UniProtKB/TrEMBL annotation:
PROSITE patterns: ABC_TRANSPORTER_2. The keyword Nucleotide-binding applies. Gene3D superfamilies: P-loop containing nucleotide triphosphate hydrolases. PANTHER family: INTERMEMBRANE PHOSPHOLIPID TRANSPORT SYSTEM ATP-BINDING PROTEIN MLAF (PTHR43023:SF6), PROTEIN TRIGALACTOSYLDIACYLGLYCEROL 3, CHLOROPLASTIC (PTHR43023). Keywords: ATP-binding, Nucleotide-binding, Transport. The keyword Ion transport does not apply. This is ATP-binding cassette domain-containing protein. GO terms for molecular function: ATP binding; ATP hydrolysis activity. Residues 2-238 form the ABC transporter domain. InterPro entries: AAA+_ATPase, ABC_transporter-like_ATP-bd, P-loop_NTPase. It comes from Candidatus Nitrobium versatile. It holds the Pfam family ABC_tran.
């Protein structure tokens, strides 16, 4: 579904991705791990065609999206549902209008149909009761759930992309989000979750990629991850071990 072949990307003179290569199948559940600034969000933006690499090939469903026109990229984007790292909701719109936004933009649904669809999506994320609230009246976890509902509006994505969906949440809210992410990927749809949190990655993913200096330092399953001797990854795992010993 997604192939990166020797992808280079830089901001000015700063190289972010340094010949990055990987491939992800349509039904895989992948966590991309790595330190702050390693280029995780950049990868999601490249997959969506929001930015272009300096060189290299990016295939989505067999098509090289680096050479596609903006009109064609809109179609490519519809294959994905994405929840961005920050600023996921429009502050001036209430929950209903936030979720309805794409329905109004991309469909010809009637007001009644939109209302029904918004309620259905809010029910999926357990937020129907908050339909009339403004974003600043929501907690972080509620905000994230509404953002997920909004990302599901209008179309039926082939794959889900999440950028730090549990950042800044208490463990219970983070767990709720992880369950939701898993539920939504049911029925054989894939997902990519970008995160710093190994504990959350282990809840949703079956494959783990660890980025370092613009390349894949590690790529393996749960067992490989837990057993790895790579010091960078052990540092990430220590957060988890620390929690386990306390429990
Ligand atoms: N628009 C931009 N202009 C210049 N530099 C940028 C821009 N966006 C990101 N960067 C830089 O590119 C690097 C990679 O950014 P990216 O957002 O992909 O990192 P990340 O792995 O998602 O980090 P985090 O875990 O903190 O979210 C960072 O060093 C960042 O400072
Ligand atoms: Mg990021």
């Amino acid at each position: 579904m997604i192939v990166f072949d020797r992808v280079y990307f830089s901001y000015g003179s700063r190289t972010i991705l340094n010949g990055l290569s990987f491939s992800i199948g349509p039904q895989e559940r992948v966590a991309i791990l790595g330190g702050s600034g390693e280029g995780k969000t950049t990868i999601l933006k490249l997959i969506m065609g929001l930015i272009k690499p300096d060189s290299g090939i990016i295939l989505v469903d067999g098509e090289d999206i680096t050479i596609k026109s903006e009109a064609h990229l809109r179609e490519v984007r519809l294959k994905f549902s994405i929840v961005f790292q920050e600023g996921a909701l429009f502050d001036s719109l209430n929950v209903k209008e936030n979720v309805a936004f794409c329905l109004r933009e991309y469909t010809k649904m009637t007001e009644e149909e939109i209302d029904g669809r918004v309620r259905e999506l809010l029910r999926v994320v357990g937020m129907e009761h908050a339909i009339g609230l403004m974003p600043d009246e929501l907690s972080g976890g509620m905000h994230r759930r509404v953002a997920i509902a909004r990302s599901l509006a209008a179309y039926d994505p082939l794959m889900f992309l999440y950028d730090e969906p549990t950042a800044g949440l208490d463990p219970i809210s983070a767990d709720t989000i992880c369950r939701l992410i898993l539920d939504l990927a049911g029925g054989g749809r894939g997902l990519i979750m970008v995160t710093h949190k190994v504990s959350d990655a282990l809840k949703v993913a079956g494959r783990f990629m660890f980025l370092k200096e613009g390349r894949v330092l590690f790529d393996g399953d749960r067992e490989n991850l837990v057993r790895t001797a790579l010091p960078e990854i052990r540092m990430f795992m220590s957060e988890l071990e620390c929690k386990l010993t306390k429990e």
